[in-house]
Amino acid sequence: MQGEKALNGTGLAQTLLASLDLRGYEAKAVYLTLDGRNIATAFQDAALAEGTQLLAMGGFGHSRLRDFILGGATKGVLTDLRMPVLLAH
């Protein structure tokens, strides 16, 4: 996703899925494209399309200055809540 922070490493989704599976949680990786939407809208659209009941996400992963100027996923999701959200920082 252009303009978004890069995730270093490969296989992160598969590692997380394996960890959740070991703990008895059913999960799957969903890869998204922005298609002209902001990241917050893309997250919630994808979650709702999958029938998700809770969106769990990290909160405020960029500097406060960058988020203030450009906005961010956390602020965007909190501004337009369409489902329960669990934030972790």
Helix/strand order, N-terminal first: HHEHHE
List the strand order in the largest sheet. 1-2
Task: Work out the strand percent.
Answer: 5-15%
Q: Residue ranges: pLDDT <50 for 5 or more in a row?
A: none
CATH architecture: 3-Layer(aba) Sandwich
> How many beta-strand runs?
2
- Give the biggest beta sheet: 2 strands, parallel
- Give the C-alpha Rg: 14 Å
Shape: globular
Estimate percent helicity: 40-55%
CATH superfamily: HUPs
Oligomer: single chain
Distance between the termini: 22 Å
Number of helices: 4
Class from helix and strand fractions: mainly alpha
CATH topology title: Rossmann fold
Mean pLDDT: 81
The CATH class name reads Alpha Beta
Tally of discrete structural domains: 1
What does this entry look like structurally?
40% of the residues lie in helices and 9% in strands. Helix 2 (39-49) packs across helix 4 (73-79). With 89 residues, the chain is mainly α.
Would you spell out the secondary-structure blueprint of this structure?
Blueprint: H1 12-22, H2 39-49, E1 55-58, H3 64-70, H4 73-79, E2 85-88
Parallel strand pairs: 1-2
Helix pairs in contact: 2-4
In brief:
The chain is mainly alpha-helical and 89 residues long. The chain is 40% helix and 9% strand.
Main features:
89 residues; mainly alpha; Rossmann fold; two-stranded parallel sheet; 4 helices; 2 strands; 40% helix; globular
